[in-house]
Structure formats: structure tokens, C-alpha cells
């Protein structure tokens, strides 16, 4: 059983079984209340699915791109859950949840704040073929930044489906694909820096 947690855009939690069936999912679109809702959402999905944490086999962690604080909350929750149960922690680029199995070339776009968007480009595939990104752009220059991919279908999303993150991780495991480094995809330097 896969538990997936993502807080790159709102907060999403899902339980997906080994066959890829979503057993339960819950989300909050509050862009700033990640820490307040992640525990509530976890309780909700376990209750809805009628499962206990002892039935988990993997924890899937969305690694962004996303804002600093929000992204850290979901990653910390996923890491803590995996460590507390001695389970494998599977990092997945959050955009991959929307780019997995697309039937046509697709650009996945999320709000990166500060007047920018984060985007990733996916080639039509039965599984996952990310050919660019995640990267940052200003909305007014996105066409230029996309270049030859500017005509691809665009998916602008305000939330990352955690169940799809789990399905991406399941596909990676089944095909022997390498998972990305479990590091947050911030895409820009923090506003606050330590004095030298």
C-alpha cells in the first residue's frame, strides 16, 4: 500500500493499493495551511480506506517545484512517516503526477508566486517522459521559454493529485526507473540569506 503526500500546491494525501487503485484521497487547497491540515488529511484517508499505517509498504513524497515553507511541510511529513515505520521513501517530481501517461505533448504549469510560474514539458507516452523542467518562467515570456513546445497542450493546475504521484512511483518501481534525488525543487534562491 502506497501513502502519497504532496504540499507543493495546497496539501494532498492519498492511499493507493499495489494494483494502482486509489483507496482514499483527501486535499486542502489552502496555500498556507499545510502544517495545520496534513495530520487531519492523513487521519481522513486512513479512516476512509479502513486501513492502518501498519499496512503501508511505501511512502511517496512530492518534491515540488513549490514554495519554500509549503513544500517542506509535506516532505517532512512524508519523511517522518517513512522513518517511523521503516518504509522506503520514494521522491517524485510533483509535476509528474499531471504529466504521467499524457496522450499528447503537454506542459504542466503551477503557480510559483512572485509573478512566475513553474513548468515541465512531457512527451505523449504510456508512462512518463519529461523532456524539460521543472523550470521557472514569467507568464508573459512562457511561449518564448517553451520554444518548440509552445504549441503543446497546457495543464494549469492548482493542486497536485497525490494518488497520481503514487501511481508514478509504482510505475517507476515496476519498470526499474531511477527516482530523483530526495531534494526539494525550489527553483530559486531563498529570500532570506545568512550574513557572511
Question: Which characteristics define this entry?
Answer:
about 200 residues; alpha/beta; Nucleotidyltransferase, domain 5; 4-stranded mixed sheet; about 30% strand
Write up this protein:
This protein is 29% helix and 28% strand. The strands form 2 sheets. It has a 5-stranded mixed sheet with strand order 3-2-1-4-5, sandwiched between helices. A 4-stranded mixed sheet has the order 8-7-6-9. The chain folds into 2 domains: 2-96 and 159-175, ATPase, nucleotide binding domain (Nucleotidyltransferase, domain 5); 99-156, Nucleotidyltransferase, domain 5 (2-Layer Sandwich). It has helices at 34-49, 68-85, 96-99, 142-146, 162-175, and strands spanning 2-6, 11-16, 22-28, 58-62, 89-92, 106-113, 116-122, 130-137, 153-156. The model has no long low-confidence stretch (mean pLDDT 94). It contains 5 helices and 9 strands; from the N terminus they run βββαβαβαβββαβα. The longest helix has 18 residues, at 68-85. With 196 residues, the protein is α/β, with parallel strands linked by helices.
Brief overview, please?
This protein has helices spanning 34-49, 68-85, 96-99, 142-146, 162-175, and strands spanning 2-6, 11-16, 22-28, 58-62, 89-92, 106-113, 116-122, 130-137, 153-156. It has 196 residues and is of the alpha/beta class. The longest helix has 18 residues, at 68-85.
Amino acid at each position: 500500500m502506497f501513502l502519497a503526500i504532496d504540499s507543493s500546491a495546497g496539501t494532498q494525501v492519498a492511499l493507493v493499493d499495489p494494483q494502482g487503485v486509489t483507496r482514499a484521497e483527501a486535499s486542502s487547497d489552502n496555500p498556507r495551511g499545510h502544517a495545520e491540515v496534513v495530520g487531519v488529511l492523513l487521519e481522513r484517508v486512513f479512516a476512509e480506506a479502513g486501513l492502518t499505517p501498519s499496512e503501508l509498504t511505501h511512502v511517496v513524497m512530492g518534491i515540488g517545484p513549490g514554495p519554500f515553507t509549503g513544500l517542506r511541510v509535506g516532505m517532512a511529513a512524508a519523511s517522518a512517516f517513512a522513518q517511523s515505520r521503516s518504509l522506503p521513501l520514494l521522491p517524485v517530481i510533483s509535476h509528474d503526477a499531471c504529466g504521467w501517461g499524457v496522450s499528447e505533448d503537454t506542459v504542466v504549469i503551477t503557480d510559483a508566486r512572485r509573478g512566475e510560474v513553474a513548468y515541465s514539458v512531457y512527451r505523449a507516452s504510456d508512462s512518463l517522459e519529461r523532456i524539460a523542467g521543472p523550470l521557472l518562467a514569467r507568464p508573459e515570456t512562457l511561449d518564448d521559454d517553451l520554444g518548440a513546445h509552445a504549441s503543446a497542450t497546457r495543464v494549469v493546475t492548482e493542486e497536485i493529485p497525490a494518488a497520481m504521484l503514487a501511481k508514478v512511483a509504482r510505475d517507476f518501481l515496476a519498470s526499474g526507473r531511477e527516482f530523483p534525488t530526495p531534494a526539494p525543487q525550489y527553483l530559486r534562491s531563498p529570500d532570506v540569506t545568512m550574513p557572511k
